[in-house]
Amino acid sequence: MHYSTIIPTLLLAAVHTAVGTVFNVTVGGAGIIAFTPNVVNAVAGDIIAFTFLQKNHTATQSSLAAPCVPLPGGFDTGFQPVATTQTTGFTIAELHIESTKPTWVFCRQANHCQQGMVFAVNPGANLGVFQSNAANNPFGNITTSASGAATSTATSVASATSAAATTTSTTTATGIDHKIIVGGTGVLAFSPANISAAVGDTITFEFQQKNHTATASSFNTPCRALASTSTSGQIGFDSGFMPVASNVTSGFPTYTVTVNDTNPIWAYCRQLTHCGQGMVFAANAVANGPKNFSAFQALAIAQNGTNTTTTAPTSGTVHAAHAASYAPVFAAVLGAIALFA
Q1: Which helix (H) or strand (E) holds 130?
Q2: Residue 50 has pLDDT above 60, yes or no
Q3: For residue 122, which of 2, 156, 173, 310 sits 20 to 30 Å off, Cα-Cα?
Q4: pLDDT score for 12
């Protein structure tokens, strides 16, 4: 299956030549957390055209068993922020269908998937199973290296009072919960950025002002998701983007992972250039030696935040022939993302 370069709406018709049916699917919209429609039956040669409406969503390939986990090697549009005031010129991403096999898709923004924001091509009798799994077993039975799976997220709420950020560790029945502050006003950092955690401990990332993620990576490629670089099928955790307005001072969203062993855990923020500016995190990194935290952070900066939010498609190739023609569109999208960076 092919996943095309993102293109502007007005150029969509010009790109289609001798193709099958084009199915238009809207993603999000004002007050809408859904793909509309949420299911399409397609044949080889057909195209799914995802049109991104208001808010900030993705169309990311997953699996029936783990609806809210990106499929290694699957397609991913990346986040497409759209202002609430925008009414035209919406971004479109095309998915070219090559067979009648099922294709499972979700939005990886915060907990949108768990709220039912999923989509399927040729699901057969399994659409209900997919939706149920998204709500009740979103991460399937997948285990991640050294970090466990997400256990909770919350929604930001505004407060009229101010509150200073604090970093705490709380003892629980199963171990210690390590609280990590992500971002904050004028802050591009995890605080603290380097901790030691025991098996059974949890790490709770609390997202403060701006729009950040906590995404598992590896020492050698600090600014790329573990799911896209692992050669052994490791998935790794990913909180998704957690936008927090500058006037929010309480009720910050959180994302918790469980420590399964004492191997090092490497993570980064995948918002634009944040990783390249040193916004990385580690648990159980060695204090001395070539793979300590300072070396990890230095490598992130040296690689200049090399990061790809769109992974290679499962099969076929990405249509990139028109990329140069659409440079202004990509610039506009990046500019929109920067508003939240």
Answers
A1: helix 127-136
A2: yes
A3: 310
A4: 39
What pLDDT was estimated at residue 221?
93
The verdict on 280 and 314 lying in the same domain is no
Residue 26 three-state SS: strand
Domain count within the chain: 2
pTM tops 0.70? no
DSSP codes of every residue in 137-184? -TTTT---TTT---------B--SS-------EEE-SSSEEEEEEE--
Q: How many helices (H) and strands (E) does the chain have?
A: 5, 23
Do residues 98 and 227 both lie within one domain? no
Residue 108 within a domain: yes
Mean pLDDT of the chain: 76
**% of the chain with per-residue pLDDT over 70:** 72
Per the structure, the complete domain to which residue 227 belongs is given by 169-302
CATH number of the CATH domain containing 91: 2.60.40.420
Peptide bond just before 290 cis, omega within 30 deg: no
331 within domain boundaries: yes
